[in-house]
Amino acid sequence: MADDQHGRTPPPAHRAHPRTPRRTPSGTEPATARSDLRLRLILSALFLPLFTAATVGFALWSAHQSPGDSPGSGPLTVLAVVCGVLALAAALDLVRVTARRRRESDPTDDVIG
């Protein structure tokens, strides 16, 4: 390999792994990928109350901790916040999935009249 003007050897060219075949579309895939709305609906409906209850539980546990108790109120507060964010994500996904299912099942919504 030839060194550049500063005496450094250039990095080797990146090649694909010889055993990794290139994936070519077969023509049967949809043009845009779609997720399974039924599964997302079930998971959101299952995890929304679970994460909501965990948020309330960790928040109450954190509120009733004394200064010397273990675990401290800091880690419990962090867990409450994480569970709250996950509950919010599940709620937003539940709203989006129900709206999309409703929109897809009612073709008259697309007609402006």
User: How would a textbook summarize the main sheet?
Assistant: none
Instruction: Tell me what portion of residues adopts beta-strand conformation.
Output: under 5%
Q: Give the N-terminus to C-terminus distance in angstroms.
A: 70 Å
Helix content: 40-55%
Order of helices and strands: HH
Low-confidence stretches: none
Q: Tell me the total number of β-strands.
A: 0
Mean pLDDT across all amino acids: 82
Pairing-aware structural class of the strands and helices? mainly alpha
Shape: flat
Q: Count helical runs.
A: 2
Q: What does the radius of gyration come to? A: 26 Å
Outline the structure in words.
- Keywords: Membrane, Transmembrane, Transmembrane helix.
- Residues 1-34 are annotated as: Disordered.
- The chain crosses the membrane at residues 41-64, 76-95.
- InterPro entries: DUF6343.
- Pfam families: DUF6343.
- The chain is flat and about 65 Å long.
- It is built from two helices and no strands.
- The chain has 113 residues and is mainly α.
- The protein has helices spanning 37-63, 73-105.
- Helix 1 packs antiparallel against helix 2 (73-105).
TL;DR of this structure?
The protein is mostly helical and 113 residues long. It has 2 helices and no strands.
Blueprint of the fold:
Elements: H1 37-63, H2 73-105
Helix pairs in contact: 1-2
From the structure above, extract its key features.
Integral membrane protein; 2 helices; 113 residues; mainly alpha
